[in-house]
Amino acid sequence: MRMVVATKNKGKIKEITEILQDLGIQVVSQDELNIKIDVVEDGTTFEENAVKKASEIMNISKEITLADDSGLEVDYLNGAPGIYSARYAGPNATDYDNNNKLLKALEGVPFEKRTARFVCAIAAVFPDGRKIVARGECEGIINFQPAGQNGFGYDPLFYIPEYGMTMAEIDPQLKNKISHRAKALNMLKEELKKYISL
To answer: Which of these is catalytic: 31, 42, 68, 69?
Structure first.
């Protein structure tokens, strides 16, 4: 069985391959199939965006396709940046720009009120119209300054109290167990097992 992943992010491909490898699924990226389109993420939820990306790439590849959409929800900011996490500071924002905007938005807010979560929705869309959608979350607190060299995005600001470190300070192997994407992928994997045995 082969599965196309609707992403150009090599880190995501590696993580997905590692988590799904014992199912005997061959994972290929849309790049490997020379599918160059960028799907417009105009859904109102992480789930809608993941399903849209997977569906559009599946319509081209005609193979089972997996896509994810993820971001950061900060309680004090009523769930922002949410689905706009990647472009929080503008359409061409860098991780540095986004992190800076977040720190400014939380200026003067005490540590205990800076609660947040990383959210990931993953969708697998089948050529016969079946869909599986899974959601994973990882709770934390937005730190006052970035720390750590691992990870990307908001990882350097996302402090996880039970480990006393930010997501960017955590060992990648541990991150692959506790992250929002790992949780969503593992839920998806359990559902995929049912489909494979049909």
So the answer is: 69
Instruction: List, as own/partner pairs, every contact residues 99-102 make where C-beta atoms lie below 8 angstroms and the sequence separation is at least 24, other chains included.
Output: 99/146, 99/154, 99/156, 99/157, 102/72, 102/74, 102/142, 102/154, 102/157
Q: Give the residue carrying structure tokens 């799904």.
A: 20
Here the CATH number for the domain that contains residue 7 is 3.90.950.10
pTM across the whole model: 0.89
| Exposure letters 36-63 (e unless 16+ CB within 10 A, then b) | eeeeebebeebbbbbbbbbbbbbebbeb
Q: Where in the sequence is the domain holding 175, given as residue range(s)? A: 2-196
Residue 159 phi/psi, 5° resolution? -90, 130
Q: Catalytic site residue 171?
A: no
Domain count, the chain: 1
Question: Tens digit of pLDDT for each residue in 24-78?
Answer: 888 999 998 899 888 888 999 999 999 999 999 999 999 999 999 999 999 999 9
Give the mean pLDDT of the chain.
92
Residue 132, CA atoms < 13 Å, CB-side half-sphere:
19
Count of C-beta atoms within a 10 Å radius of residue 177: 12
